[in-house]
Structures are given as C-alpha cells and as structure tokens.
Amino acid sequence: MTALATDVRKTAPAARERRSLGSRIAQRLNGGLVRVFLVLVGLFWLVPTIGLLISSLRSPDDMSASGWWTVFTKPSQLTFASYRKLLENGDITHSLLNTVLITVPATVLVVVIGSLAGYAFAWMEFPGRDWWFLGVVGLLVVPVQVALIPIAELFGRIGLFGTILGVVLFHTGFGLPFAVFLLRNFFAEIPRELLEAARLDGAGELRLFARVVMPLGGPAIASLGIFQFLWVWNDMLVALVFTKSGTQPITVALQTQVRQFGNNIDVLAPGAFVSMVIPLAVFFAFQRQFVSGVMAGAVK
C-alpha cells in the first residue's frame, strides 16, 4: 500500500506537468496568437481587392510605368479620372443596370418560390410528397453546362433568347433546387407544437407561413438570398450565352471591353472594382444573418 502511494506521488507531478503544458498550448491557441494569425490571413486575402482599388484610382500611364504599391510613396498618383470616364461609358453603365435587373428578380423569385415550396415539403401533406422532394434533390446534380444548349433552343423558339427575362428564368430555375432543399430542411426543424397552436388559433396555411414560418426562417432565407445574389451577380457563362448587346450584364460588358480595346485599363479597373464592391457590400450588410443561417441546425 505504501509503495503504491509512493508511485502515485511520483507520477502525479508528471501528469500535472503534461496537463499544464497542454492547457498552456490550448490557451495560446485560443488567445491572441490565433487572432493575429487570422488578421494576417484576412489582410492577405484583401490584397487583390486593395490592389484593384488603388489601380482604379491611378492613371493609365502610372499603371503601365509601375506597380500599384508605389502609390504609398507617391500618393499624388491617386485620381478619380478613371471613374469619371467609366460613368461616361454608356456600355458599362447600361450593363450595370442590366445586372441589377437580372440579379434582383432572380434572387427574389428564388427566395419566394423556394420558401413556399420548402414549407410545403416540410409541413403539408400531398400525394407523392417524398418522391417529388427526391426529384428536387436529384436536380442538384444537374450541371448548368448540360442545359445551356437545350434551353437556348427553347428560348429561341418562344422568343426569350437574348432577353433579360430569359436570363432571370434560367437563374431562377437552377437556383430553386438548392433553395427548396435548404429551406425544407430548415423549416422541418420548427417545433410542430408551435404550428399546431397557430392552427388552433384559426391561422390558415398562408397566414401561418407569413406570420410564423417566415420570421423563424429569417437566417436561412437571408443566407439563401446572399448565395443566390452572389451567384447571379458574378455569373458570366449564362449571361454570355443568353444575352445580346443590349441586355449584357457588367461581367460580359467588361469582357467585351477587353476584346475590343485590349489596353483599356482605365475603364476595366474601375468597372471591375464596382462590379466586385457591390456584392461585397451586400454580403457584409447581411453577414450576421448569413452566419446564423449557416450555423442553423448545428446545435439543437
């Protein structure tokens, strides 16, 4: 018994030392060292954005003569002449308006239709509900490239090819499977007792959806809206196939500027920054709802 106690006393300090070393490592990882590392990573990811912003504020001669980082030693290079020229470029400004006319309806339609369908698949009984939902999930694996030519031929026959409406319908159709899948799974986590209590109070399905489900599903709906907005705004493939000269969004318009003028950097740099900063502003404006929607369902 005495020998056993002696062995315990000998091993206890080593165990405490090992635990203290592990706790010290964990404390350092959870402390300022990780925060500094994350800040450095964030700054590293922002370098291209900062470089594009500075390049858009320099003249073409300065950009061809030196790199954008030289502005820190020569701040007199900064000028808004490129943005004034951008605003005078009718193709770019019109394409920016086209981008808004495509992105906003495509986002709103996906959110509204996806929310209604997600609620129906989660809480409404109708024949073949599970099979219909499996069909929607199966559409998630269909690549966009497969449908470009068939839908382009269909739109050409019905007069939608080359129109903004055609692009909106294409983005809506391919955005709905993910929207229905995401919102159905989120709405299914709503307590059944809450919905039954609302029905006992006389709420119909539409009122129940608008007054109970939509407020509770706000984080998931906001996340879906951000995903859809970023996808449509930054899209170039679909717009390149389905639009014409008068309906092109800004992504295609900037690509056209490169093909036609080659070194038209004083228009390309500010145009690219404007095209990038708008979705960034939308993301940061709704980042709290985005994070809540992504984490929804992770902890019950």
What this model shows, in words?
It is built from 15 helices and no strands. It has helices at residues 2-29, 32-56, 60-65, 81-88, 90-123, 129-138, 144-158, 164-187, 192-200, 205-216, 218-233, 237-242, 250-261, 265-285, 287-295. It has 300 residues and is mainly α. The model has no long low-confidence stretch (mean pLDDT 80). Helices cover 78% and strands 0% of the residues. The longest helix has 34 residues, at 90-123.
Overall average pLDDT: 80
- Estimated structural class: mainly alpha
Number of DSSP helices? 15
* Rg value: 27 Å
Order of H and E elements:
HHHHHHHHHHHHHHH
Strands, total number: 0
User: Which range does the strand content fall in?
Assistant: under 5%
Which term fits the overall shape? globular
Termini separation: 49 Å
Q: Give the fraction of residues assigned to helices.
A: over 70%
Q: How can the largest sheet be summarized?
A: none
Uncertain segments: none
Summary?
The protein is mainly alpha-helical and 300 residues long. Helix content is 78%, strand content 0%.
What attributes does this structure have?
300 residues, mainly alpha
List the helices and strands and how they pair.
Blueprint (H helix, E strand, L loop, with lengths): L1 H28 L2 H25 L3 H6 L15 H8 L1 H34 L5 H10 L5 H15 L5 H24 L4 H9 L4 H12 L1 H16 L3 H6 L7 H12 L3 H21 L1 H9 L5
Helix pairs in contact: 2-14, 4-14, 5-8, 5-11, 5-13, 6-8, 8-11, 9-10, 11-14, 11-15, 13-14
